[in-house]
Amino acid sequence: MRKGRRWSKVVVFLLGLTPLSWLGLRAWNHLHGSFSEGLSANPIEFITHFTGDWTLRLIVITLAITPFRKSLSLPDLIHYRRMLGLFAFFYGCLHFLTWIWLDKFFDLREMLEDVGKRRFITLGFAAFVAMIPLAITSTAGWIRRLGGKRWQRVHRLIYFTVIGGVIHYYWLVKSDVRKPIFYGILAAVLLAWRLHASMQRPKRTAAPPSVNKTPEPVAR
Q1: Which burial class, exposed, middle or buried, applies to 154 when counting CB atoms under 10 A from its CB (0-12, 13-18, 19+)?
Q2: Of residues 96, 99, 168, the one with CA closest to residue 132
Q3: Which of 49, 96, 122, 188 has a 20 to 30 Å separation from 109 between CA atoms?
Q4: How remote is the C-alpha of 143 from its chain's centroid?
């Protein structure tokens, strides 16, 4: 790995931790009585929205890597996609942990009832579960095990994740829907770009058989 790329990855890694550091600072202020600079009057709701926002932002940024690197001729951007995707999963885990710990106190019965009865939780839970195979198979070893085409099929789950995450957010906020609509527009543009790019790819055609080659017998 080139030295410049290694240092740029360190910078991207530190930037990925910046939201968590900021949240930690807000929590510190909250514990010391500064509610205006803390976690607001409803800390659980604040943390839930904060971690959910950053999960969606990072998913959208991850989706934007391929269009940006191709449209702007910046092939090195591909080296940051896995890290950004893993940070999206990390903040998704924090979002999920906020719900099962701070909101539900690990009450499995209450959590299952919420998943079954409240549609925004059902969809949000499904979108989070779809992120798990993406995170597990993000390594070079899994790419080799699955092969390029199967790996790509697995990683198309990110489309369901971003769509499910946007709808989950929209159903959650109910009234002020500006943020989920904004994320939805960004996701729609990126998905439309990918659809257009896939339609522009030339289809592979099978090579014509050689006239000098004797056809093989059909197995029975």
Answers
A1: middle
A2: 96
A3: 49
A4: 18
pLDDT at residue 40 in the model: 79
N-terminal to C-terminal alpha carbon distance within the chain: 51
| Residue 211 φ/ψ, nearest 5 degrees | -70, -20
83 contacts: CB under 8 Å, gap ≥ 6: 9, 12, 13, 16
The 8 Å CB, 24+ separation contacts for 137-146 are 138/82, 138/85, 138/86
d(Cα 189, Cα 169) in Å, to the nearest integer?
18
CB 150 within 8 A of CB 201: no
Model's pTM, two decimal places? 0.85
Enter the tokens of residue 107.
């009450």
Tokens at 181, concatenated: 């609509």
Question: What are 76's two structure tokens?
Answer: 């090195």
